[in-house]
Amino acid sequence: xxTQTFYNLPKSKQNRILSAGKKEFxxxxxxxxxxxNIVEEAGIPRGSFYAYFSSKQDxxxxxxxxxxxxxxxxTEEILQKAQGDLLKAFxxxxxxxxxxxxxxxxxxxxxxxxxxxxxxxxxxxxxxxNVHQLTSDQMDVIKNLIDFSNLSxxxxxIEPFMEIITAVTRSNIAYALRHxxxxxxxxALFEKKxxxxxxxxxxxxxxxxxxxxxxxICSN
Length: 220
Description:
Elements: H1 4-7, H2 11-25, H3 35-42, H4 46-52, H5 56-81, H6 86-103, H7 108-115, H8 136-145, H9 158-178, H10 183-199, H11 205-219
Helix pairs in contact: 2-3, 2-7, 5-6, 5-8, 6-7, 6-9, 6-10, 9-10
């Protein structure tokens, strides 16, 4: 995370450095990004970069953390737009980020992150879309916006369900960008995945639950 020296900078200079970082990480991974390019774009001495951030990875993670804050606000907005329909809200989110990644230059930063997403990465990217990173107050705000009348989920099942659907959303965008799917193809693929979540995979849910209880008893 940034040092206090960075936070002491004028806001305009902070924004200039962050913009330079987004531009560089829009074209490169953390490994291939150049500090030289970042400082030249920001108009600062190379040595000062390390007075603000400990490494390229540290800088990159801070940019993603900022995006995570913006995403929290966006989650609340789309839930309101979807009138509490959780699946519809994630449909909006998927389409929004996919369109932005495909069409708009300012969002190439996120496009590049998605395109280079690696399973098991320790990057701050996994805090973006990660419900475990939300505070209890933030989670309560989201839960209060959800219409539970069209969900067969209890209150304590919302968090694990959101963990599943956020992972599906994230991976579908990454897959679409990596494999060159157009918007319609990616959207159709995501809809298939949503339908699996919407309808489930068990043909007889009552028997499935009963069998699961038996397995639990036997294992004990």
